[in-house]
Amino acid sequence: MAEPVKTKSENLSFLTGKGEMHRLTRLKNWSATSIGTPDHWPQSLRTTLSIILNSKFPMFLWWGPELLCFYNDAYRPSLGKTGKHPDILGMPAKEAWPEIWDIIQPLIKQVLDGGEATWSEDQLIPIYRNGKLEDVYWTFSYSPVNDESGNVSGVLVTCNETTQKVLIQKTVEKNEKKFRDMVLQAPVGILILKGPEYIADVVNEKYLQLIDRDEKLFIGKPLFESLPEVKEVVEPLLNNVFKTGISFNGTEFPVMINRHGKKEQTYFNFIYKALLEDDGAISGVIVIANEVTSLVQAKHSLMESELHFRMMLMQSPIPMTIFRGPDFIIELANTEMLTKIWRKQASEVIGKSALEVFPELNQQKYPELLRSTLESGKPHRDIESVVYVQGNDGIKKFYLDYEYAPLIEPNGKASGIMITVNDVSEKVETRKKIEESEERLSMAIESTKLGTWDYHPNSGKLKWSDECRNIYALPENVEINFALFSKLIYAEDYDFVQEEVNKAMDPSGNGEYDIVYRILRYDDRSIRWIRSQGQVYFDTDKKPERFIGTVVDITDQKKAEEEIARVAAIVQSSDDAIISKTLDGIVTSWNTASERMFGYTAEEMIGQPITKIIPPDRISEEFDILQRIRSGERVNHFETKRMTKDKRLLDISITVSPVKDKHGKILGASKIARDVTERKKAQQALQESELRLRIATEGTKLATWDLNLQTLELLHSPRLAEIFGQDQSKMLSLRQLRTQVHADEIVHVEKAFATAMKSSEQFFEVRIIKPDKEIRWIKTKGKVIYDEKRLPLRMIGTMMDISEEKNVIQSLEESKQRLSIAVGAAALGTWELDFVTNNVIYSKRYLEVLGFAENEQPGHAEILKRIHPDDLELRNQSMTEALKMGALELEVRIILEDKDIRWIKLAGRVLYNEKKEAVRILGTVMDITEQKKAYNLLRESEERFRQLANSMPQQVWTSDTKGNLNYFNQSVYDYSGLTKKEVESLGWLSIVHPDDREENVQKWMEAIASGEDFLLEHRFKKHNGEFRWQLSRAIPIKDASGNIQLWVGTSTDIHDIKEAEEQKDFFISVASHELKTPITSIKGYVQILMRMHEQSEDKFLKNSLRTVDKQIVTLTTLIEDLLDLSKIKSGSLQLNKEEFSINAMIRESVEEISHIQPDYKINFVASDECMVFADRGRIGQVLINFLTNAIKYSPASKTINIENKVYSNFVTVSVADKGIGINKKDQDKIFQRFYRVEGQDEKTFPGFGIGLFIASEIIKRHSGKIGVESELSKGSVFYFSLPLNNLSNE
Amino acid sequence: MNKTGKAHVLIVDDNEDILFMLKTMLQLKDYSVTIKESAENIEAFIQELMPDLILMDMLLSGIDGTDVCRNLKQDPTVAAIPIVMISALPQAGEKCLKAGANFFIGKPFEMNDFLNVVATALIKTPA
User: Fold this and answer.
1) Which listed residue, A30, A311, A627, A1252, has the most CB atoms within 10 A of its CB?
2) Cβ contacts of A1087 on chain B, cutoff 8 Å
């Protein structure tokens, strides 16, 4: 490019300069433009350009009609780095600024037209620069440039790009908007106050809500105009912030606000923060307010409740305390706790660690419990816990119910424990005492074997104690009720008991109940004697409300009584000498045995001193014996020697007992002299030791006493008062004791005292009467203590209640008396006949026996008239004989006035005078009618039995309880051809077939031992040598108490029946075998035919063959069953046991049945697999039998379910069908031989009914179980079970 | 096996019907069958015939099949031939097996069972 400008340099000074635009304008080829080269430019342009190019202010100029563009260096950056610069220099405006031409053209026109300058500030005028259209903000002015002629020739643009400023401003605005938005949306109340008057500038909704004000009325107004009520409190704070710029934080600040139509106490958390301007000046205050009223209120109420809680705790009547922290610092403890439990002052414990205050707790479980409560935060409760606490008054044991309640902090952790304690020591101790005493009572009851019962007549409820149940042998699980109680009464006593019960419950009576009767024990129905005592309590309506009492088993007592009677009988029938004598030793009775033993007759001895038979060197013995008898003692089998009439010395053992009247007064002694065999010695020793034991056990209850003989003041142990039935704490006087002594005994007491004064020793046994009228025997022994002048000072002694001992002794004495004298006197009438005068003297009983009235005085003749005419001869003969022999014994009948015939037994002894003439006869009479009757009855019944037995074709026999056969009827002799003697000598076993004897004896002994019926088939030898089968059966005959009395047996000839049976079984066995060969043949051919015609189209043929095949299976089964039956009968059913899987066996059977009965669906649920040891074929047979039955009896349902289960060593296989079912009554029977359920439906089904019998036999032989559960028309479940534990046992 | 490759079975039974029936069953299965109606000279007969299997009733008119069986099993020349015995008598099975029979079939029986036993006997005791 040429540089034309250079040529006119002097004229173009306005273009000189260093700037870029200077240079560019200078170098620009202007010749092509409408204004031509610079040298042609008007001055106005030159001047303007000079200003522009030299100005540091951005300037632009459009010039001329084309508005050619000029600009300076300062403007240049606005054009960007690439784009318009430098191309637009000298370019017409329209071409240079096409993008903004629309914006600037009106402005330019405005300037060109009116000559008015324009001003635009921060105007967005996007321009194309830096390769793109950029948003550029401008502040600019268009001003007219006049040419020399005064016309506007150009437009000067002075401009400043304000893009950056505008953008910054925009960001600021945006931030402020953001801030306001934030304020407005903030969840806390925010208020911005401007200026010292605190004009509300910005406020958010939250704040308005807090103060309940309307925004319109609030914004732009001084704060305290809107909220005058807060001025007083808030203004100083605001002022402070406003002045100092220091923020104010107010927490839970109380403010009264008028809102929601009322004045409210509110609480706020405030932040007042100075609002700073850019220059750091404070222009206002930002208020951030958060209302915490409800929180504060909650806090207040919490504080209040805590206060209440503490007050409650302190005032609680229950001991309470609070431990804080892991050291269990005692924070507080109420008075109850301090005084009752801790027994310490508050100052000693509060603020201290509990474990330090109570170190004894460390040895107990409590520290650990406290710790775990604190750690786990879970409360701990304990009742009746034992705790030892060291108080100021020592260690004390408490029973406490306590609770540890953790005090949970807001963080969920326990910071302490509140302890409440309830002292239950007294309650527990009382209860323990009651328990103890109850225990003692129950022990006492137990030891006496006393049962108790409690009957509520209204509800009918009856309760029995365990012992009561024991007595009745009533198991725990059996409920007792009145009906059962009644049922357990022995039949004979039933009416009596019911009567007594009714009597007791009769409101008009006193409700007392005390009876002795027999019961049947629940378990074995054995008979027991019991004594039951009770009392009925009536309610206010006089209705029986409760009936309580005790029961005690007195069977042994009863037995003992019987035993005594038995012993008496033995003694009576023995050869013992029985003698009675007075306390002075004068013989009063002398029995025949004595006569035999000593050689003296009764006459010679009665009225004589006993010393007559005592050897002279032993006379002193008798004094000792008498002394002991007088004091109530007895002399037991005293071994000594006595002398007979012919001066022989006898080695004898004597027993001497005091004989007392019914008041216990000793009248004399009875003496038994006997040959003491070893057995009797032992028996007696046993009796003695028993007695000794009883005395010893009672003897421990010794009382002691001390009597001042001068003042008669008595001191004694509590036991003495107890013996006398008085309060043990009482001290009784001698006078008091005397009032309780039985009137009859006072003399003994006095005698004993008198003796004591002489001998210094006192001893007596007397009866006393207790306040409850019970009479007891006491024994006391005393010793006198003398002073130095030998004057009696005191007497000390012991006392014992010997009632039990006395009773025992008495009962023994009574039995002795019965056997020596009493029995005869009481039961016998006595008589005396004077042979000379024929006068008869007789006792009351005598008259009674002979049927005379008490006031009658029949003479001898009249008495004789009573004798049955048929027996008169006998009487006379006997009397004649008695006169010779000296003794009479006679049983005759008498006829009473009312024609009643009675049997009497007369006995007598003839007395002779010195001339040996019979003078008198003394005798007894006894009514023996009942005995005779009983005897006759017995004889008759025995006779009847014999006749009956003999008339029976069966062999009848009886045996004693030990199994010795003692009677055989005529049939036995007829059959065996043996005589009675032969049977007795050879023994009945000789009749039994030798092969059967062992089993016979064994079975018989088993029956005898167990008391169960005897049943046996065995062969007896007939008189012709033939052995025939007999069915023998024996049953035990029991008495009323259930004791076996004898066995009655029969043997029935079953030989022919048995033979027939055997033949039948043999026939069945052979026949069924013979049947098998033709069946095999038929079956074989049918199956061949089926095979051959498998492909045939002939359906009839195929069906027929299948039917035949099926029927053959049925036939085969029947034959097998018949064979099995005969095997079972003959006992030859063999089991071939092996171990096999029950499931496999079931599957095979199912397959087999499915093959024959494809219509039926047989489901098998194989649950428990197990191996059994059994006969696989036989078990399969059982299952097949079940299945065929299920099919046979389920015509409608085609589903059968098989299940197997293992349970407790057994595997059970069940087959369930939905068939016709079986009636309950038939269910037991279907396993019997030839039994088949009957009914309309059942009859239509075929079958022998022996299958189940065989199945049952097979299962029995495997020690298994078989059964059925069924309901008519619902179906049946047949099952069998096999034991699992006998795997390879056999 | 004989020349035809069929197993050769000898049936000994004195009951003609059974004999024919067994024969038919075996022929259905393509066995080659020889029958004999009595136990007369049975041992010599077998030594001569040397069948692959002997099928024999336990009761053969007056002769106890178990005796025959025992003798055959003691004869080394024929002991290897399997013997299947048949009977209707109870407890016959045990008796036959004791006498040395390889198999026993009780009467009556299913054809299939019978044929299975024969087939098994032939496999179990290869000649």
Assistant:
1) A1252
2) 25, 110-112
Identify which has the larger pLDDT, A553 or A410: A553
pLDDT tens for residues B49-69? 999 999 998 888 778 889 999
A518-527, A586-595, B91-100: least confident range:
A586-595
Closest-CA distance, B21 to chain A, in angstroms, reads 6
Euclidean distance between CA atoms A867 and A901, whole angstroms: 9
Please say if the pLDDT value at position A612 is more than 80. Answer: yes
Please indicate, yes or no, whether the overall pTM of this predicted structure exceeds 0.95: no
Q: Is A1081 on the interface with B (CB under 8 A)?
A: yes
CB nearest B24 (choices: A1088, A1127, A1134): A1088
Instruction: Name which of A8, A26, A7, A27 is nearest A16 in CA terms.
Output: A26
Backbone angle region of A115, left / alpha / beta, with phi > 0 → left and psi within -120 to 50 → alpha = left
Beta bridge partners of A290: A269
Helix extents (H) in A989-1098: 994-1010, 1055-1092
What value does the mean pLDDT of chain A take?
79
CA distance B3 to chain A (A): 27
Which residues does A1195 contact at the CB level (< 8 Å), separation at least 6?
A1219, A1220
Q: A732 or A1130: whose pLDDT is higher?
A: A732
Structure confidence at residue A574 (pLDDT): 40
| A1246-1253 long-range Cβ contacts below 8 angstroms, 24+ apart | A1246/A1114, A1246/A1192, A1247/A1189, A1247/A1192, A1248/A1118, A1248/A1121, A1250/A1121, A1250/A1122, A1250/A1125, A1251/A1117, A1251/A1121, A1251/A1185, A1251/A1188, A1251/A1189, A1252/A1185, A1252/A1189, A1253/A1125
Mean pLDDT is lowest, of A105-114, A634-643, A733-742, for A634-643
* CB–CB contact A1127 B90 (8 Å): yes
Q: What is the ipTM of this complex?
A: 0.86
Q: Please give the Cα distance from A788 to A770 (Å, whole number).
A: 39
What is the token pair recorded at A1069? Answer: 């066995």
| Average pLDDT of the segment spanning A795-819 | 61
Partner-chain contact B111 A1091, CB within 8 Å: yes
Question: How close is the nearest chain B Cα to the Cα of A1061, in Å?
Answer: 20
Angle between helices A1055-1092 and A1099-1130 (to 10 degrees): 150
Residue B17 is nearest to which of A1069, A1081, A1116, comparing CB atoms?
A1081
Beta strand residue intervals within A313-460, DSSP E: 320-324, 329-333, 380-391, 394-408, 414-423, 450-456
Interface test with B, best of A1068, A1077, A1092, A1105 (most B CBs within 10 A): A1077
Q: List Cβ<8 Å contacts ≥24 apart for A531-537.
A: A532/A453, A534/A453, A534/A504, A535/A504, A535/A511, A536/A504, A536/A505, A536/A511, A536/A512, A537/A511
Partner-chain contact B90 A1073, CB within 8 Å: yes
B28–A1088: do the CB atoms touch at under 8 Å?
Answer: yes
- Taking CA–CA distances from A1117, the nearest residue in chain B reads B108
Greater pLDDT, A8 or A743: A743
Residue A1055 Cα distances to A56, A957, A1015, A1026, A1027, angstroms: 162, 19, 16, 11, 9
Instruction: Tell me which residue has tokens 């001329």.
Output: A64
CB A421 within 8 A of CB A400: yes
Distance, in Å, from the CA atom of A518 to the CA atom of A527, rounded to the nearest integer, reads: 6
Three-state SS for A334? coil
**How far is the C-alpha of A949 from the C-alpha of A970, rounded, in Å?**
8
pLDDT digits (tens, 9 = 90+) for A484-509: 888 889 888 888 898 988 888 888 88
